[in-house]
Write a structure and sequence with these properties.
Elements lengths: L9 E3 L9 E12 L6 E12 L3 E5 L6 H8 L7 E6 L2 E2 L5 H8 L2 E4 L11 H9 L6 H14 L15 H13 L5 E5 L7 H16 L5 E5 L11 E6 L2 E4 L4 H11 L9 H10 L1 E5 L4 E3 L6 E8 L2 E5 L2 E6 L4 E5 H4 L6 E4 L3 E7 H10 L1 H20 L1
Parallel strand pairs: 4-9, 4-10, 7-8, 8-9
Antiparallel strand pairs: 1-12, 2-3, 2-5, 5-6, 10-11, 12-19, 13-18, 14-17, 14-19, 15-16, 15-18
Length: 384
Amino acid sequence: MSTGLSSTGMFRAVSLPSDADVVIRAHGVNFAYGVGETRTQVLFDNNLEISKGEVVIMTGPSGSGKSTLLTLIGALRRMQEGELNVLGFNLTTADAGSQVELRKRIGFIFQQHNLFSSLTAIENVRMATALKPGTVKEMNARSIEILTRLGLGDRIRHRPAELSGGQKQRVAIARALVNQPSMVLADEPTASLDPESSQIVLDLLRGLADGPTRTTVLLVTHDQRVIDKADRIVNMIGGRIVTNSLTKVAVRICRALAATESLSGLTEATLSRIANSMTVELREPGETIVTQGEEGDRFYTIGSGVADAYIDGDFDEEKCYGEAFGMITSYFKRPVPATVVARTEMELYVLTKDDFLSALADDQSFETRIRSLLAAANAAAVDG
């Protein structure tokens, strides 16, 4: 990842995909179900770019439009408004034949396994190999290999009724991946899997993205285990993409924010929106980060390293991962309460005054939490 590190040791956490490698490009995408009085719009003016070889998580609350957008990208629904180009196919104008050709290049993984009950695991996977023909021996070998990699080598002759829910899901995943597709679209692919099976699937998807095919993977999921394998996160709320292009650095920011006591309980979407506004700041041992009594214009959350806090020159406490410090004096009407000095090398996640105020304006849950903290601080001051 290109960090864009500046001379001040600060860089933006967000990195957009390289335009030359974009394989999904959506602009102004709207979609509605029903007609007339029953018409309900579920997607609103969505813009999205995803590059070849990226693993991208799409998340958000139920009913936010994630699955609908996924099915549009996969040419499983007809476009209504906006522009959508996937793997070189213009889905705004594509006819039925072009849609079929696109679908042949995509591996689909859905929560419903859609396995043929009368066929064995290997026969269900073999059905997909017809899209990439070879000899019977070659197609069988490919099917056995992918099933074995997914831990089903001893279940290839079993029918769906003889498999557990997680095993059936892995057969469906094997069917989607057996042809090494150009793109994988998955809706909650690990929802029914145990941790070990989930890790196998995620490693396989990451391997396809990093391998010679540079498969693009787009997953709708609430599974936090997926985060380690993702390049970016796209958050949707109310039919709109509200944050996009979070890199692995920003994922670390989300985790540090989630570990911050004062922010505990905020939703994943809220934390992601805050993270999307933050920068990364690197500090050396012995550096003073904030000084007691001064006006402050930023909050810090510790991503790595240890710092020491001093009040009136005396050591007060140690600060480490997930702890926050600093002050937005113009909002809280208080100066910086303690001097904080880096004890080790540190990676700090920083929210500046302007980005803090913007986050408050954009997210009511964040504003409510901050107002509660402000009220508690004022009450403590009165009691003191």
